[in-house]
Amino acid sequence: MRKIRIYNTAEELNISFTGWLTDILAEKELATIALSGGSTPRLLFDYWARLPEGAIDWTKVKFFWGDERCVPHTDVESNYGMTKEHLFNFIHLADKNIFPVQGDNDPEAEAKRYGELLNRELESKNGIPVFDIMMLGMGDDGHTASIFPHEMKLWYSDENCVAATHPVSGQKRISLTGKVINASSNIAFLITGENKAQKVKEIIEQSENAEDKYPAALVQPDSGNLFWFLDNKAAARLTKGE
Question: Which residues pair with residue 67 across a beta bridge?
Fold first, then answer.
């Protein structure tokens, strides 16, 4: 089931996504979430940080990351560092519930370590670790997590995590692979901005053609639970009703 939800503002998107999240948390004693980086999640984390204490029971959540830049946690580009600055510093959460990627480790060794950590900490199905909630963004080149179009082969890796390379900067990154992403019980794309509109249209309305070009088009969860949370700018070129 693919569900597309379109909002006039980022704040409306944040409110709706939070309702979707809390509905899932209400059914779980403990939920696992893979976070994404970027400007859209940052605004979401700011919204969560402003909520009244107890609005979300964070003690029921174990946090992981779908990808991470290979930089120290104190670096401004760290996804973990951004989450800490905008969310973790404002909520009551035990360290044992947070599982960051160690971005300053050797990339290949860290990809292996994090993949093994997922095997230990998550429930599995057919030998693949399963997240309850997978948050994803999408770049204006159609990448998701840190699987980029020039490295599509990494999507199909047999490993849980891989070391990837940014096509422009050459920066190394750690990313979940396609098998882990698509094994998730619920996947939510959170996408804002007109610079994403063309890729959103291609992936949603011309998916067969897009699968050869964009990693984001390969997000097809086994559960069928795929949700697109879009602002009206990202959804501006969509023409088909959903």
Answer: 175
Instruction: Determine which helix (DSSP H) or strand (DSSP E) holds 137, and give its type and residue range.
Output: none
SS3 state at 242:
coil
pLDDT in tens, 37-79: 999 999 999 999 999 999 999 999 999 999 999 999 999 999 9
- Give, for 43, the enclosing helix (H) or strand (E): helix 39-50
Decide if 180 contacts 158 (C-beta within 8 A): no
Tell me the pTM: 0.96
Could you tell me which residues are beta bridge partners of residue 88?
none
Closest to 133 in 3D by CA, of 5, 12, 26: 26
Q: How many CB atoms lie within 10 A of CB 166?
A: 17
Instruction: Render pLDDT for 110-155 as a digit per residue (tens, 0 to 9).
Output: 999 999 999 999 999 999 999 999 999 999 999 999 999 999 999 9
- Residue ranges of domains in the chain, CATH in brackets: 2-231 (3.40.50.1360)
Distance CA 167, CA 141 (A): 10
Rounded to the nearest 10 degrees, the angle between the axes of helix 39-50 and helix 10-26 is 70
Give residue 106's pLDDT: 98
DSSP string covering 5-26, please?
A: EEESSHHHHHHHHHHHHHHHHH
Dist CA 230 CA 242 (whole Å): 13
The predicted structure's pLDDT at residue 209: 84
Note the helical H segments in 145-215.
Answer: 178-182, 197-205, 207-210
Sign, CA dihedral 227-223-164-117, equals positive
CA distances to 45, 58, 73, 75, 92 from 84, rounded to whole Å, are 9, 14, 9, 12, 12
Beta strand pairing call for 133-136 and 187-191: parallel
